[in-house]
Amino acid sequence: MTPTAPAPSRREQLKARQQAETQRDKKRRTWARIIGGAVTLIVLAVVGYGLWTAVPEQGDTQRLAPDFTLTTTAGTAVTLSDLRPSPVLIYFNEGAGCASCTMQMAEIEKNPGFAQAGITVLPIVMNTAEQILPDMQQFGIATPYLLDDGTVSKAYDVLDKGMHPGMPGHGFVLIDGDGVQRWYGNYPSMWLDPEELLNEVTTRLR
Question: How far apart are CA 148 and CA 128, in angstroms?
Answer without folding.
Answer: 8
